[in-house]
Amino acid sequence: MQLKNMGLLYRPRRLRNSELLRSLVRETIITKDDFIYPLFVAAGKGIEKEISSMPGIFQRSIDRLGPEIDELLKIGVPRVILFGIPEQKDEIGSDSFSDEGIIQQATRYLKSQYPELMVITDVCMCEYTDHGHCGIIHEGDVHNDTTLHYLQKQVVSHARAGVDMVAPSGMMDGMVSAIREALDEEGFEQIPIMSYSVKYASAFYGPFRDAAESAPRFGDRKRYQMDSANMLEGLREVELDIDEGADIVMVKPALSYLDVIAQVRAVTNLPVACYNVSGEYSMVKAAAEKGWIDGEKVMMEMLLSMKRAGADIIITYFAKEAAGLL
Ligand code: PBG
Q1: Residue 2 confidence (pLDDT) above 80
Q2: Measured between alpha carbons, how far is 268 from 68 in angstroms, rounded to an integer?
Q3: How far apart are CA 45 and CA 226, in angstroms?
Q4: Strand runs (DSSP E) across the chain, as ranges?
Q5: Catalytic residue IDs
Q6: DSSP 112
Q7: In 3-state terms, what secondary structure has residue 59?
Q8: Would the CB of 278 count as within 6 Å of ligand 1?
Q9: Candidate from 169, 274, 315 with most ligand 1 atoms within 8 A of CB, to mutate
Q10: What whole-number distance in Å separates Cα of residue 67 and Cα of residue 79?
């Protein structure tokens, strides 16, 4: 049979004909510099405990962090965000603002042993309170303004320990301005704030709560984290955080909120971060383990989608694995 040329003027397939052409016209590139790797640091010694719902991700005590950091530096991911598992939890999350707290000790250790490593701390109370909520409880609810006072103490202690950047994640109103004020007052005006500006009350945090042992003991986080249905409210949160002095704004989770990332990108010239959260990681790992998907390819496609949506920075448990492929 004679095949007919239909006389099409523009044929998009022309630019897909070889990898050299495809890479020439590729619009989105992921680099190792886009990544921040989360680390779970546990109080104690000799701890190296894999999180059952997050294969490849461990809780480690400070004395076991070394090889992990060496690997990160070698592979080209010199940026970490720290989450702490304290020795003891109490009503007001005392470990979170103590100079001898797990995060403060870990930060001092990392910054003294690995000056080339960028250390970011998650600023929140849920890992340190015995009730598991992200603030101070008053009459059964997280009291916003009292919590701000504790967040101020927490960031100042992180700053004294030598942190490079702080990342408040508790979704308290006024949290960025309270933190900025506290840092500036103590002479830490050079420490940037990466705010979890648009953080949803999400079921995708499930595995993280195993990892950080931070599930709330009563109720849920819907009175401070955002309703998944809302976009405009997220843009109001971003606007507020910018007014309050945030240096980087974040959307979290990432995968089910790519539309939100794109909108945030459109309304601000600040760098935009997203958090590729635990549940997004675990889903890929579980399906790959069953042989249902190609885990590496799905991982890269997901990370690419976050960049394409407009994120400049991706906090991801995949950082090491993805960097190995770049
Ligand atoms: C709060 C915090 C959470 C995550 C990061 N910071 C959990 C929560 O809000 O319950 C979740 C990260 C993830 O799921 O990977 N400190």
Answers
A1: no
A2: 35
A3: 37
A4: 35-42, 48-50, 58-61, 79-85, 118-123, 137-138, 141-142, 165-168, 194-199, 248-252, 272-276, 313-316
A5: 199, 252
A6: H
A7: strand
A8: yes
A9: 169
A10: 15
**C-beta 122 within 6 A of ligand 1:** yes
Q: In 10 A of CB 250, how many CB atoms?
A: 27
Q: Whose CA is nearest to atom 14 of ligand 1?
A: 205
How far is 95 from 87, CA to CA, in rounded Å? 8
pLDDT given at position 210: 84
Count CA within 13 A, CB hemisphere, residue 54: 26
pTM for the full model?
A: 0.96
Cβ atoms of 238 and 264 within 8 Å: the answer is yes
121-156 tens-digit pLDDT: 999 999 999 999 999 999 999 999 999 999 999 999
CATH of segment(s) 28-325: 3.20.20.70
Rounded distance from Cα 45 to ligand 1 centre (Å): 24
Q: Please give the mean pLDDT across all residues of the chain.
A: 96
Contact, 107 vs 121, CB < 8 A? yes
Tell me the C-alpha distance between 131 and 265, whole Å: 35
Can you give the pLDDT at residue 266?
98
Distance between Cα 208 and ligand 1 center (Å):
6
Domain ranges of the chain: 28-325
Query: Is the Cα dihedral 265, 302, 59, 131 positive or negative?
Result: positive
- Location of structure tokens 């304290």: 86
Whole-number Å distance, alpha carbon 18 to ligand 1 midpoint, is: 42
Residue 205 — pLDDT band, cuts 50, 70, 90?
very high
CA of 178 to the centre of ligand 1 (A): 21
| 126 Cβ closer than 6 Å to some ligand 1 atom | yes
Q: Is 169 in the pocket of ligand 1 (CB under 6 A)?
A: yes
Question: What are the tokens at 134?
Answer: 């992200």
